[in-house]
Amino acid sequence: VEVKIEVVIPEKERSKEEMSPNGKASPLIYKVNGTARHYHLEEHPIASNPYHNPKDVVEASVCHVKDLENGQMREVDLGCGKALLIKESGEFHAVGHKCPHYGAPLVKGVLSKGRVRCPWHGACFNIGTGDIEDFPGLDSLPRFQVKIEKDKVYIRASKQALQTQRRTKMMAKCISLSNYNLSSTNVLIIGAGAAGLVCAETLRQEGFSDRIVMCTMDRHLPYDRPKLSKSMDSHPEQIALRPKEFFCTYDIEVLTEMQVAAVDIKNKIAVFKDGFKMEYNKLLIATGNTPKALSCKGKEVENVFNIRTPEDANRVVKLATSKNVVIVGASFLGMEVAAYLAERAHSVSLVELEEVPFKKFFGERVGRAVMKMFESNRVKFYMQTEVSELREQEGKLKEVVLKSGKVLRADVCVVGVGAVPATGFLKQSGINIDSKGFIVVNKMMQTNIPGVFAAGDAVTFPLALRNNKKVNVPHWQMAHMHGRIAALNMLAHGMEISTVPYLWTAMFGKSIRYAGHGEGFDDVVIQGDLDELKFVAFYTK
């Protein structure tokens, strides 16, 4: 079977490139297991000269060979942009200098075993290829040519790559969407968060050229959910993970405002709330979680929010500006919202059942240090109590009454008291779900049903670094990795998950970064200065 590969070339270069040296068009032919695959490449194949347009290329001498020791990195300037020069095992490599996730300077990261790790959020890149190997983020680093001449190190790079500092990996396209029945797909992904999107992208990167459909209850295409509580006035288009055109280019169909009500695993059919049915061959369930609501008197009054969507976050900022805010729950969401609103609102009060924030997660000493930072930024804590009533005036929130008897003035209330997995629709499905509602998967993200995978906040999976203990890790980074592992195993790669859990939170210009899984710790070893918030804490058992 012959398959044509189309290489996408910027418009201005296309006229020069349309003819091959012998004057005839020369498509590339690709054969895959005797199956027709139509590839549509988003980057040029690696050739002896990957830079088609000489005007787009810059070459510069950046240092002497002895300027860098093994294991060292240096940011170097090529005149129209920077690159990261790396020396490891006697060899030089050059890649983009900024992490494609949020633009962190990789020179401040960690170089180890052929990979550079981002200093901010832990994304990891292969120094030989630039490929992303651990998350968060979707794009890889551009890789540049390095040559040594007369003991000088030269880098040759595309100006465009130096400016964008990111590279989207090659992806296949669907062979022919027009051949498909609307109500059947090869891969159905329920949920359009990080896990669902990375799964779809990984399938395309691996050459999968059949139909992929993602469905979401959200109104929007996949977006950067952590920003809802960290950067609350962001609009949906500002935090989109990929532009609309991306999904069209790679034939990843997204059905918005579509909720799956049941899954018939015997007949491989997903039944939607509106009665629509879709057959699938492989299924990924990545529905995430549902925030818990308050159960007190007056819980249905206006201006009480769980932050689930960009619209929720935007509305809270608008209502809170110069007004009184009460936040229920010193969770990551609750604390991030408090930090964001502290300088915008007239007052911010935080109600929590525990005696210090983050006690179960960070321990009492770290929790107290964080609490002190909040108090010095005008956030008032009401600890070891709960909400007993929400009082209204003309239908809108006016006061929050605590069980301690205290009455707090409130124009807006944000609830962050935890969440439950969004798996209720699977109860009668036969898919294995534990007592807390989490979908149980193995190291390959497979459920007990062949062809059905699950990923993200709604699963428990065996964590290698805790002797394969089944854990739930609702982190953004982990959702990305789950999606990747699920996709590879849909394609029968036999890939097991082995990544280290990683999360970050940012409050009042301070960032807390946490690696590992410290659940059940009985001691905290602290190095550094807690009062100055310059410390490392080790959670031990």
From TrEMBL:
InterPro entries, alphabetized: FAD-oxidoreductase/Apoptosis (IPR050446), FAD/NAD-bd_sf (IPR036188), FAD/NAD-binding_dom (IPR023753), FAD/NAD-linked_Rdtase_dimer_sf (IPR016156), Rieske_2Fe-2S (IPR017941), Rieske_2Fe-2S_sf (IPR036922)
The organism's place on the tree of life at top rank: Eukaryota
Protein name: Apoptosis-inducing factor 3
Annotated Pfam families: Pyr_redox_2, Rieske
All copies of domain Rieske, residue ranges: 60-155
Species this protein is from: Cathartes aura
SUPFAM superfamilies to which the protein is assigned, alphabetical: FAD/NAD(P)-binding domain, FAD/NAD-linked reductases, dimerisation (C-terminal) domain, ISP domain
GO biological process: execution phase of apoptosis
Cited PANTHER family: APOPTOSIS-INDUCING FACTOR 1, APOPTOSIS-INDUCING FACTOR 3
UniProt entry tagged with the keyword Flavoprotein: yes
Record keyword Flavoprotein present: yes
This protein's UniProt keywords: 2Fe-2S, FAD, Flavoprotein, Iron, Iron-sulfur, Metal-binding, Oxidoreductase
GO cellular-component term (any): mitochondrion
Family named by the database record: Belongs to the FAD-dependent oxidoreductase family.
GO MF annotations, alphabetized: 2 iron, 2 sulfur cluster binding; metal ion binding; oxidoreductase activity, acting on NAD(P)H
